[in-house]
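Think of the structure tokens as a kind of shorthand, similar to the way a musician reads notation: each symbol stands for something richer, in this case the local conformation of the backbone. In the example below we present two proteins back to back. Begin with the first one, reading the sequence and then the tokens, and try to describe in your own words what changes along the chain.
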Amino acid sequence: MADLELEVSRREESGKGVARKLRQKGRVPAVVYGGHKEPVSISVDQKSVSELVRKSEHGIRSIFLLKMADSDQSRHAMIKDIQMNPISRKMNHIDFVRVVMDEVVRVTIPVRVSGTSIAVKNGEGVLDFQARELHVECLPGSIPDEFVVDVSSLKLHDVIRVSDLEVPEGVEMLEEPDRLVVSVATLRAEVVEEVTEEAEVEPELIKKGKDEEETT
């Protein structure tokens, strides 16, 4: 696996004013945690991070080789969290976590549903997607991008549990085997329609009763 190199700069000062100036220059304040060492404040070029994540096979779960500018220091790390500006959608802050390539890490893997259930196609049921992320433990180089769940063969009341998933070799699932991932439940449309009809009829009966009182 080729390293995704990302040049970073040490950040000696902190505070909102410093962070704002960095963002104006196209850089993002960040912190590197973990690895039994003290956190290190850094800054990274936002465009470089975005391009590496977009082009990488593993996307946001990529392992970066952080190389300190004007130094021979380097460290493997992953992105733990990215804080985004809700308006501009630009990065406000990044948390990295140090990675040792021969030590296992605990990560959260997204679950993606593939196909359309037979019961959903026939209008008999609705898909209930209950586990959108699952926790695993593995070496950094073995981190899966996602778990793909094929639901095309599911009939009404069928379920897929964690124990039914294909887990890659070298990856340990940390979830309970009986945890539901997806299921096909009965549609509730008929019940909703009945309630709606009752709600529409009741005011008419009340109005009719009042009219009869007025005419007597």
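Once you have a description of the first chain, move to the second and do the same.
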Amino acid sequence: MIEVIAGTTRPGSATLKVAKLIVRMYNEAGASAQLMDLQALPQQIFLPSAFAEKPASFAPFQERILRAHGLHVVVPEYNGSFPGVLKHFIDMLKFPESFEERPVAYTGVAAGVWGGLRAVEQLQMVFGYRNGFNLPHRTFISAVHKKLDEAGELNDAFTADLLRTEIREFIKFAAAHKRADG
């Protein structure tokens, strides 16, 4: 199973729309994928006490990460970086096993011209520090609000082709880097 993580909690975000499209594209490509929407995170993980003892309500999120054959992070660029809620989520996950030798793909989204480049590169450093295997192929969706129609579908064939290529590459990459326990 590939976990597609929508890396923000912003309501109605383009990130969530793109993540849902990516899940569908994985399934169309014959790979099993599901959406992990950070809006569903339990509020208890934001209490200071969560650092000492993870709330039981967080366990399903942790288990999904540990069972995943790969992670595909869809991340917006906020203020030149990735959202704080995504970093907090990462910080709540078990160390080192959550990302250790786990394949990770990235899709950046932004209203600006660089399509989330800074956010993706910073995340690659975080996952690399945690010994994740970063897929070299990344997709950056600039002016994302112009590339999604009212129904949340891509209206840009070039971007759709980039995503399909990234997904095909990640399916092969995740299979080649399958963890011994997965």
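Compare your description with these statements about the second chain. The CA atoms of residues 77 and 161 lie 22 Å apart.
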